[in-house]
Amino acid sequence: MAALPKLTDEEARYLTRDELLRRYRDLECGYLRVASDRGSMMKDLNQRMQIHLTEIRGLKDVNQRLQDDNQELRDLCCFLDDDRRKAMKLAREWQRFGRYTSSVMRSELAAYQHKLQELEKQQEGLVRDNFELKELCLFLDRERETDPSSAGRAEGDGTPTLGEWRKSSRQ
Q1: How big is the chain by its Cα radius of gyration, in Å?
Q2: I need a surface site. Which of 18, 23, 149, 159 has the fewest CB within 10 A?
Q3: Mind listing the pLDDT tens digit for each residue in 58-114?
Q4: What would the pLDDT profile of 67-81 be if each residue is shown by its tens digit?
């Protein structure tokens, strides 16, 4: 329906009662339509507001979960960083221990090698002494076999002394 032109008081006096009643009913019908449209718009607006509020609540929940996850990840990062530092400290300690152990092992090895060399020299001396004693025993056995009557050696009997025997066996 087309909008009715606005009437001045002067124009309204000249209209008939039926004309005024018709105009009144047209305006009333228009106002009811506007009120109905306004009600529909408000209902639609309220529905959209409810949808948006529901979305906002959902987003708040999601945001809270993300913040909780973020805090959990931060805590995990702190724990892992602490663990990494402890591992690095332990690795440094093991390196120091390894270097210390290595130096101790080197010094012990050098001491054992030195002792082994001394023992080898002693063994060579013992081998020489054993060889000389064996030669002496063989010499004495030969002497005893050649002269069975002599039970012992007397001074000046012509048998070599131990010192003479050593000199003669080395030549």
Answers
A1: 64
A2: 149
A3: 999 999 999 999 999 999 999 999 999 999 999 999 999 999 999 999 999 999 999
A4: 999 999 999 999 999
136: Cβ contacts below 8 Å, ≥ 6 apart: 162, 165
Residue 21's identity, in one-letter code, is L
In one-letter notation, the amino acid at residue 171 is Q
pTM above the 0.85 mark? no
Inter-residue contact 130 to 138 (CB < 8 Å): no
CA 134 centroid distance within chain? 70
Q: How far, in Å, are 8, 10, 108, 126, 132 from residue 119 at the CA level?
A: 141, 146, 16, 10, 19
Given a contact cutoff of 8 angstroms between Cβ atoms, the answer to whether 156 and 119 are in contact is no
